[in-house]
Amino acid sequence: MPVPILKQYNILIASVQSTLTDTDILALQNDLAERVGKFRSTGVVIDVSVVDVLDSFACRMLRTIAEVIRLRGAQAVIVGIQPDVAFAMVQLGLTLDGIPTALDLEDGLALLNARSPRLRADYE
Amino acid sequence: MQNYDLVIQLSRKDDALSTGKYLAAPLNEKEKVELQLFWDVYGRHYEDVIAQIQAGVAERPELRALFEPAPNRPQYNDTRQRIEEGIGRGDWSGYIEYMVALGAYYAVSNIRLATWFGALHMMRSIITRLLMTAYADSPDTLERALNGMSKYLELSMAAICETYVATKEETILKQREAILELSTPVLPLTDGLLIMPIVGVVDTYRAQQLTHVLLYAIREHRARIVVMDITGVPVVDSRVANHFIQSVDAARLMGAKVILTGLSPEVAQALVTVGVNLETITTRSDLQSGIEAAYRRLHYKIVKGNSDAFGSVFDDKD
User: Fold this and answer.
1) Cβ–Cβ of B216/A81 closer than 8 Å?
2) Most exposed: A38, B106, B169, B181, by fewest CB within 10 Å?
3) Residue B194 in contact with residue B227, Cβ under 8 Å?
4) Is the distance from CB of B153 to CB of B124 less than 8 angstroms?
5) CA B179 to chain centre
6) What b/e sequence results for B21-57 when a residue is b if at least 16 CB atoms lie within 10 Å of its CB, and e otherwise?
7) Distance, in angstroms, between A66 CA and closest chain B CA?
8) Within chain A, which residues score under 70 in pLDDT?
9) Residues 6 or more apart in contact with residue A105 via CB below 8 angstroms
10) What is the DSSP annotation of chain A?
11) β-bridge mates for residue B227, sequence order
12) pTM, whole model, 2 decimals?
């Protein structure tokens, strides 16, 4: 099942709806890389709050996607990692160093908001 | 908490009053004959052997604890009959029951297994001498009788040691449960700020439980910052430090920052000396500075008013 991507002003919200297959993740990477340019987005929120299993490939890809988005000129933030998922990731040594994380969509948007003045101007 | 539920294995005393559990394989015909050869001699001199062991133990103070009368010491007057049932009819349950009771008694009375092995050695040498006299004319029979003795002693050892270890394990599990019940409180201080004081020894198991509590508390209270105070942790070595690093990393994945406070001067020096990489962790010397740092990050400000506005500090009003 492909991941729906919503556009909200300058922000893209990718809301993962089910456990990610490897194809879904690769498709997500393509879609986001393309749309960040198309919509001139400044921020991307990837919401994984309904995901209760993240394998090592998915973790690595989240990292890659965040990096790709940064290269496309936007800031990515990963939100909604569940306690058990966080615990498992740390045990596997996948700590997503350097990639912003937030508790949920609300906090993620607030984080992007605080980091991007252009965005703040649009909201106000 | 279902992932961390303790699997409590209560003592196996009841489920296994049979030889099956204490023997690597069922006794075969050869072994039964060997046991019989051994018992033919031991049984004949049974009272004598026991008397000799008790006399020997009386001379060695370090073994005395084994036979000291105690209210909870299992007392069986028909041991001989129980052994006979095992060797003659293959029903070892009576004898094993005795050994299991003894093993449990040694464990709760803190009698060391080494002590028991001391007495066992004494018994072995007494019986060996008896067997050598009885089967002096036939080395072949002697060897088989000695094998029988080994089998018999192995069975006793297995039953006693298994029970001894199981009883000790039970104590450890009970203590671990007690620590979990003391557990780790998570205290919301202000919006987005949690305090987590940790008291007591942190081992791998407790570290996992701590992380678990921490992560769920972050979600429940929507915490941005957690101040984790480890003043009450007696030993912080590199392993414990790595546990904390893991907790901090996991919290970060959920969008919360952890400030670690209460690292003592000794601990700080020790960690640096052994080269633990604590670069990713924010630390403050004490809880107070930790909370101050958290407030700064959350843009809180504590303002001291004057008595005109707030009344005297000596007022009892809330």
Assistant:
1) no
2) B181
3) yes
4) yes
5) 13
6) ebbeeebeeebeebbebbbebbeebeeebeebbeebb
7) 14
8) 117-124
9) A13, A15, A45, A47, A49, A79, A80
10) -PPPEEEETTEEEEE--SPPPHHHHHHHHHHHHHHHHHTT-SEEEEE-TT-----HHHHHHHHHHHHHHHHTT-EEEEE---HHHHHHHHHTT---TTS-EESSHHHHHHHHHHH-HHHHHHH-
11) B195, B259
12) 0.60
Which residues are CB-neighbours of B263 under 8 A, at least 6 positions away?
B230, B236, B271, B283, B285
pLDDT tens digits, one per residue of B118-172: 888 889 999 999 999 999 898 999 999 999 999 888 888 888 888 888 888 888 8
How much is the ipTM here?
A: 0.81
Mean pLDDT of B272-295: 89
What pLDDT is recorded for position B209? Answer: 87
Q: Are B210 and B50 in contact (CB under 8 A)?
A: no
CB B27 within 8 A of CB B120: no
What are B18's two structure tokens? 């049979």
Contact (CB, 8 A) for B107 and B167: yes
Confidence category of residue B17, pLDDT binned at 50, 70, 90: very low
- Residue B111, SS3 per DSSP: coil
Residues in chain A, total: 124
**B→A interface, C-beta within 8 Å:** 3, 208, 211-212, 215-216, 218-219, 222-224, 246, 249-256, 280
Instruction: State how far the Cα of B280 lies from the Cα of B273, in Å rounded to an integer.
Output: 17
Length of chain B (residues): 318
pLDDT value of position B68: 79
Report residue B280: phi and psi, to 5°.
Answer: -80, -5
Contact at CB, B219 and A82, closer than 8 angstroms:
yes
**Residue appearing with tokens 């990963």:** A78
Alpha carbon distance A1, A21 (integer Å): 8
Do A4 and A28 meet the contact criterion of CB atoms below 8 Å apart?
A: no
SS3 B138: coil
Please say whether the beta carbons of B207 and B240 come within 8 A: yes
> Which residues of chain B are within 8 Å of residue A83 when distances are taken between CB atoms?
212, 215-216, 218-219, 250, 254
* Residue A115 structure tokens: 């980091």
Q: Note whether A76 and A100 are within 8 A (CB).
A: yes
